[in-house]
Amino acid sequence: MEKLDPGFKRLLRSHKIEDLRAHAGAIYGIWPDFRLAYLNPGWFRFAADNNGEPEISRRWDLGVSMLDALPPETQAFYKARYRDCLESGNTWSYEYECSSAQIFRLLAQIVYPLGAGEGLLIANSLRVEQAHDPKGRPVNPPLDSVYRDQEGLIHQCAGCRRVKNPLEPERWDWVPAWVDRIPVATTHTFCPSCFGHFFRLPKDR
């Protein structure tokens, strides 16, 4: 499956559409106001492989703002970087984690400006995919008695989705059961490493 806004097609003249279709990862195009204008087959494959269909196709169609698919805490970060690409005409690339409860995934994203600030093409490629290593990332049981603070809240990182351990303020644990199903009374914030990633200025990156 592939979806392409006819008006966006002319902006892809510097990219071979056959290559975009054959790309293993998810590629999408957006207008300057961040509305989706192109979805390659890899977008739909990734959604299906991660149990996102048919909900992904139903909710994230052409014309929908891709920012709505992001946690509110990270939207300002992406808006700033994407606007910088549109205004400067420079590409931007970075790596990010997109793990499931069972699988650790590290992906790379490259953002290509199109035309004279007329849109962006965003390509995602898988860098690392492996089962979570208990030695590298301890797996913790979903215990309310451990992770709820004095106000009864669970603090989950909006970036990596680790959970703050109130008993050790600097410790953030990987709790797989709360990746797919976020418990009630959960507030989203950032662990120290993700805060540094999302809130450094573009010139510092």
What does this entry show, briefly?
The protein is of the alpha+beta class. The chain is built from eight helices and ten strands. It has helices at 6-9, 17-22, 41-49, 55-59, 72-88, 144-147, 177-180, 192-199, and strands at residues 3-4, 27-30, 36-39, 92-97, 103-114, 119-131, 154-157, 163-164, 172-173, 186-189.
State the order of secondary-structure elements, H for helix, E for strand. Answer: EHHEEHHHEEEHEEEHEH
What gap, in angstroms, lies between the N and C termini? 36 Å
Largest sheet: 6 strands, antiparallel
Number of strands: 10
* CATH homologous superfamily label of the largest domain: PAS domain
Mean pLDDT rating: 85
CATH fold annotation of the largest domain: Beta-Lactamase
How many separate domains make up the residues? 2
Tell me the Rg in angstroms.
18 Å
Beta fraction: 25-35%
Q: What overall geometry do the principal axes of the alpha carbons give?
A: elongated
CATH class of the largest domain: Alpha Beta
Number of helices: 8
What does this structure look like?
The structure is a single chain. The chain is α+β, with helices and mostly antiparallel strands. The protein folds into two domains: 129 residues, PAS domain (Beta-Lactamase, 2-Layer Sandwich); 73 residues, no CATH class. 28% of the residues lie in helices and 26% in strands. The protein is built from eight helices and ten strands. Strands 1-3-2-6-5-4 form a six-stranded antiparallel sheet. A two-stranded parallel ribbon has the order 7-10. The longest helix has 17 residues. It is elongated and about 55 Å long. It starts with a strand and ends in a 6-residue tail after the last helix. The C terminus is likely disordered.
